Every structure is written in C-alpha cells, then in structure tokens.
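Standup notes, protein team

Yesterday: finished cleaning the Aquifex aeolicus set.
Today: TldD/PmbA family protein structure.
Blockers: none.

Input for TldD/PmbA family protein:
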Amino acid sequence: MRLSQIKEVVKETAKGFEWELFFLRRKDLKISTENGNFEKITTAEDYAVAVRLLKDKKIGFSYTTQLDLSAIKKLVDHLKEITQRLKPDEGNVFKTSRDRISVESPFDKNGVMLTIDEKIDKITSFERNLIKLHPYVAGTRETTFSEVIYEVEFANSFGVEFSYSGTFYSIVTSVLAQSPRGDKTVTWGYKESPYLLDLKLEELAKELTQKAVDTLDPQPMESKTTPVLFHRSAFVQLLEEFSPLFSGESALKKKTPLLGREGSQVAVEGFTLIDDGTLKGGVSTHPYDDEGVSQRRTVLIENGIYKGFYHSLSTAVKMGQEPTGNGFRESISSPPQAAISNLYLKPGEADFEELVNTEEKVLVVYELMGLHTADSVSGDFSLGAVGVVYKNGKKVSAFRGVTVAGNFLDLIKDISHIGNDLTFYSNVGSPSVLVKNITVGGK
C-alpha cells in the first residue's frame, strides 16, 4: 500500500486536527556463525506507520503494523478521542515548512547486491582469520551479522513531505582467549555502519585479539589515584552514557549541571564535542530527523567552551532556541524526542604509542562494565574496568575486577592528551583519551 492512500484516509478522518504520518519499511537479514562455521540465518520484512494528531497544543500518538485502510481509519478515530483528553503543552508543535536537504541518506548498493552466500563467507572468514591471529585465541562465541534495508516516508498537514532509503550493517562478536597458565577471558566487540566495507572487519579482529590477549593473567591492584588512558572503545562508552547531559530534554527537566553554563569552560582546551547528522558515512546520517527538521552539525563543546544543547522541535520551542535536527524516535512505537545523531569527540594529534609513553605508569582501560549504574544526571560513575598497566611504554601486567570512579564533567577537565585514533563503533565515535588522575579501586 502506498503512503498516498494512507495519507488520504488520515486527512479525511482527522478533520479538525493537524496530522503527521511516519511510515517505515524494514528488511532484516541476520547471519549467525561460530568459530568460522555457519549456524543460522533469519530474514524478516516489516511495515509500520506512526500517526500523531495535534489540536489546541495537545498531541496524541499511536502506531500500527496493520496497513489496511480500515485499520488506519480506526486508529485515527481512536486517536482523536485520546488527543482531546490530553493536557496542552506549549512545546507540542509540528514542522510547518520544509527545509532544504543538506545531505543524502547513505545507501550501500554494493553491499545489498552481494549474495547471501557471499555474506556468509565474509563473516565465517572473519572468524577464521581472527582465530589465527594469535596462539592464545581459543575461538569465538556466536557472531551475529545484520543487514537492514529501510525506507522512510513522512508527511504532515502543513505540506511537509519527504522520503529516503538507507542501509545499516552491524556485527557483534566475542573472542575467547586462554593463556599457557590456564587463565581465560572473553572479550566482546561490535561495529555498525551504513556501508558493509566500513565495518572494517580486519581492524576489528586485530583490536579484539589485542584486548583479549593483553588482559590475560591479571594481577591484583591496590587502590590509587593514577593516570588512566581510556581506549577509544571505552571512551565511546562514556560519551554515549553521558550524552543526555547535552540534551534539551534534560535541560527542561533541570536534570543536567550544564543548564545556564553556555559560554563557560567545562572541559580542557582542545576538547571539542560534536553532534553531526550530516556526517559522511554516519550511522545516523539522514536528510531529516523524524520530525521533518533537516539534520545539521551542532557543536556542543568547542575547545572546552560549552556552546549549547541539542534540540527536538519541542525542546527548542520551550527554550526559545532553534531545533537542531535531533528529534528522533527510539522505535516506530515511540514519539520523537531529543536524542543524539552522530556524536563524536574531535581527535587530537598523538597516536596510541605516544599516549602510553606520556606518563611513567599508565592504566589503559579497554572496557567498562556496569554503565547502567552511572548517574547521567550528575555525571557520577563507578564502573568495573578491564585493561593493562603500562610502565615506560611497555605492558607490565593486566587487570580485571577493578573500579574506575569519578564524575564525567570533572574528567573532561582533567584530560591531558587526546589521541588521533578516532573510531566510530555505532553512532558514537572517539579517539583514545588520557586523563591525568582518576580514582581506581582495587583490593
């Protein structure tokens, strides 16, 4: 069924209301392998439409996967009743004019054209090659490769209409390593990209192998305050977890210490944090956000100076700001809210080897655990950490079961060096980051 037919039904049924349609079609392919052997394949194709109605500053929301016209009419009739019973809010607005397109949605024609057998071979070869990289690698746990092809169509009663299609690839895997002493460790990793080749499977295999082998045979560690080098994959975890600090939603709820601090220094000079919905090859790069606002590049922190929040239409209206193209749906079953697009820390100039040689002794954190316990309102965290101790640029021991504690906003003021190894793992990217002093809890 075409969106034009659905639009006519909604337009007719929703008389007296402003309306908005968001149509999503997805084709999913999942391939599972283990130790270089094919396990299973699953495919699915889904269609869904989300509807919002607006009247008297009240917005009602619903969605359905039943796309016959009678089901759509029934949904809208029910939604009209619900909407009128809701409380008005000044932030309840729709996009009233169409912005110019600033970027195209990434679509991997070459990846889509590969046969299923070629994709299976690509993933099984990745695992087999990974196992050969080091004698301590004992195998892999299940590897899951995903390909998503999607189409989006949008229309509202103000004449804002657009459509785009895109692709999304991801791989999630884990590596089992065992030392001659019998110690075992499992290290997991993932990559996501709109383009299959940009998963960079060889680089992922090397990174996972290094982490797995380096963290074997850990040694006890005393509690201390010490320089810590967050590997790029670990600092990505921090950036993602504390991204709500920069959200207009958090500002409105007074749940961020950054409220009212625009123009002040909140991080070390050289720390520049950017949310860029126009980033070439970005996982969340699209011509528009899910409300019809053109995506754009928003600098959140520039050389340590806080510049402002990212906004949906609603948060922008309430705070007297311009929307930044950050109104996204968590899924088709959720209405849009302020969220990051492609968030990343601008890289510095030092390579990883330089960073581990900067201090006489450095703790390199490869992975953080327990992020669900972090306080994204205050910025406080106390997290499990896995990594390696370097002394005079050489690895001297591994550690597991220690805690790294602090406050994110304090941490970004205490950075001494930012690496040049910017890497995206999904829609969040970071280089490795060296922090002067941080509390590490051991035995």
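Follow-up from PR in the comments: The two ends are 63 Å apart (CA to CA).
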